[in-house]
């Protein structure tokens, strides 16, 4: 096998934010309603968004070039209102 010929797996993390501005109670006031989803990949599938690191230089065995770091991380959903006056 050629040196540095292998590549590791990809690690992806997707966050989402949806916001909608709405009028306030007075003409010069504004409000916005928002929804934030952190680690949306783990919300869709527990196997997505998992970090795998190379075992090298700690231990190299045939067929186990990468190991999983921890369990699936928790997703977070936040709903809120931002009011400016």
Provide an overview of this structure.
- The strands form 2 sheets. Strands 1-2-5 form a 3-stranded antiparallel β-sheet, with no helix packed on it.
- It is built from 1 helix and 5 strands.
- The N and C termini lie far apart (66 Å).
- The longest helix has 5 residues, at 40-44.
- It has 85 residues and is mainly β.
- The mean pLDDT is 79.
- A hairpin with a 6-residue loop joins strand 1 (16-23) and strand 2 (30-38).
Relative strand content: 35-45%
Q: What characterizes the major β-sheet?
A: 3 strands, antiparallel
- Give the averaged pLDDT, no decimals: 79
What's the total count of β strands?
Answer: 5
Radius of gyration: 21 Å
Provide the spatial order of strands within the biggest beta sheet: 1-2-5
- Which secondary-structure class do the elements indicate? mainly beta
Poorly predicted tracts of residues? none
Query: Share of helix among residues?
Result: under 10%
Number of helices: 1
Choose one word for the global shape. Answer: elongated
Span from first to last CA?
A: 66 Å
Topology:
Blueprint: E1 16-23, E2 30-38, H1 40-44, E3 52-54, E4 66-68, E5 76-84
Antiparallel strand pairs: 1-2, 2-5, 3-4
Main features:
mainly beta; 85 residues; two-stranded antiparallel ribbon
């Amino acid at each position: 096998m050629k040196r540095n010929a292998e590549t590791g797996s990809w690690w992806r993390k997707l966050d989402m934010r949806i916001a909608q501005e709405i009028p306030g109670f007075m003409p010069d006031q504004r409000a916005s309603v928002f929804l934030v989803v952190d680690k949306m990949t783990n919300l869709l599938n527990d196997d997505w968004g998992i970090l795998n690191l190379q075992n090298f230089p700690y231990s190299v065995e045939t067929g186990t070039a990468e190991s999983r770091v921890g369990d699936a991380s928790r997703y977070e959903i936040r709903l809120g209102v931002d009011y400016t006056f």
